[in-house]
Design brief:
With about 300 residues, this protein is of the alpha/beta class. It has a single domain, classed as 2-Layer Sandwich (BirA Bifunctional Protein, domain 2), CATH 3.30.930.10. The chain contains eleven helices and eleven strands. The strands form two sheets. An eight-stranded mixed beta sheet has the order 7-8-9-10-6-2-1-11, sandwiched between helices. Strands 4-3-5 form a three-stranded mixed beta sheet, sandwiched between helices. The longest helix is centred in the middle third of the chain and has 18 residues.
């Protein structure tokens, strides 16, 4: 990839951008079910919008494993819910866009910040590019030769049923294979970006629960195994959840000129989380497009 220079995996334009120092809140919330995870991200978004908490970087995991779909996807037509039940997977709708993701054996990050924060200011691609600097720097600390996907990476590509088949601009690649997939939403003048970093396992497992004809499912499985990668595959060794969090924490702080102050959810966020968790399990949110606009947090 000639557009990237040096071993840092960053474009020259990114390395030359100077960001004034800032302090963000750091949350490490462990493992939760899918509805709780999405509710926490949205509760933080509401608190940031109200000026009650600073910009926040959060790391978390999923238990039990969960299939998430993008805000605009049709759950019934995209995901085989009976297959999910047989596999012990739950399902949830993200407030962000994108395609289906199986959250299993992974580390998820989220960034929630006001639109005026220089690290997320500008259009979506510009903020993606800046935030990707933190991901690349953290992965480099682990010995992973990660780079940002070029803006032209999706040109001429077809829409896939699975998020990890085709990288969007500035998502994270290793040797041409997608490692981190991210998605973004902007509401109430706040940016929410979250993304999945598979730590281990078969990147083609999601195909078992996608509603596709068997030949198409197997074709997609083969393509995913060629075009996507786990961190263990990229490094040739297993990286624990804690080791990965530590590296990304330092990467974000150094690349984005941040002090990350460990914190907890405030009382208002906990109250909002309980309301939003109910939203994320309601049939209206999961299955009824017309009803979603009236749900809390929308």
């Amino acid at each position: 990839m000639n557009a990237f220079s040096g071993g840092s995996g960053l474009r020259q334009e990114d390395r030359d951008v100077a960001l004034s120092h800032a302090t963000w809140r750091l949350l490490e919330t462990g493992w939760s079910d899918g509805a709780t995870n999405m509710a926490v991200d949205e509760a933080i978004m509401l608190a940031v919008a109200a000026g009650k908490v600073p910009p926040t970087l959060r790391f978390y995991g999923w238990s039990p494993p969960c299939v998430s779909i993008g805000y605009a996807q049709d759950l019934r037509s995209e995901v085989d819910l009976d297959a999910c039940r047989r596999s012990g997977y739950t399902w949830v709708r993200r407030p962000t866009g994108g395609r289906a993701v199986l959250h299993i054996d992974e580390l998820t990050y989220s960034v929630i910040a006001p639109l005026g924060e220089p690290r997320v200011a500008g259009d979506i691609l510009t903020s993606y590019r800046r935030l990707s600097r933190g991901l690349v720097a953290g992965l480099n600390r682990l010995g992973c030769q990660a780079i940002q996907a070029e803006p032209e990476s999706r040109r001429g590509g077809s829409e896939s049923a699975a998020c990890f088949e085709v990288p969007s601009p500035y998502e994270i690649l290793v040797s041409g294979a997608k490692l981190v997939g991210s998605a973004q939403a902007r509401r109430r003048r706040v940016v929410l970006q979250h993304g999945a970093l598979p730590l281990k396992g078969d990147v083609g497992r999601i195909c078992d629960v996608l509603r596709l004809p068997k030949p198409d499912r197997e074709t997609l499985r083969a393509e995913l195994r060629q075009k996507a990668v786990s961190l263990e595959m990229a490094l040739g060794r297993m990286v624990s959840f804690a080791e990965c969090v530590a590296a990304l924490r330092i990467g974000f702080a150094q690349a984005l000129n941040l002090t990350l102050a460990p914190g907890e959810l405030i009382a208002d966020e906990r109250v909002a989380m309980e309301l939003l968790k109910n939203k994320h399990v309601r049939r209206e949110w999961l299955f009824d497009k017309a009803a979603r606009a009236g749900q809390p947090g929308e």
